[in-house]
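Final report, section 2: Outcomes. Of the targets proposed, DASH complex subunit DAD4 is the one most frequently requested by collaborating groups, and we therefore present its record in full.
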Amino acid sequence: MRAPHYARLRLAHPHIANMESPHEHQQSLLLSRIIVNVEKLNEAIMMLNKNLQEINIQNMDTELVSQMFKNYQSNVLFHLEATNGLKDPA
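The predicted structure is given below as tokens.
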């Protein structure tokens, strides 16, 4: 199997031995773009997590009020049944 043309060129001309593969530059650019995009994605996910955490904190109050109302409703029903105050709907 023959060496790629750029490898043969390096062997034939030692003064250009530090010349990189034609694909290395393109791969380097692609990797740079991937890294930048992953960093942006990480920032977006961190912001999403922060916002979800704030939403969960806000929902805690709603959940508490809901539980209080449910308990109140249960207590009212118990009291009405205990005092025979619960009447069938007319």
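Residues 27-85 form one domain.
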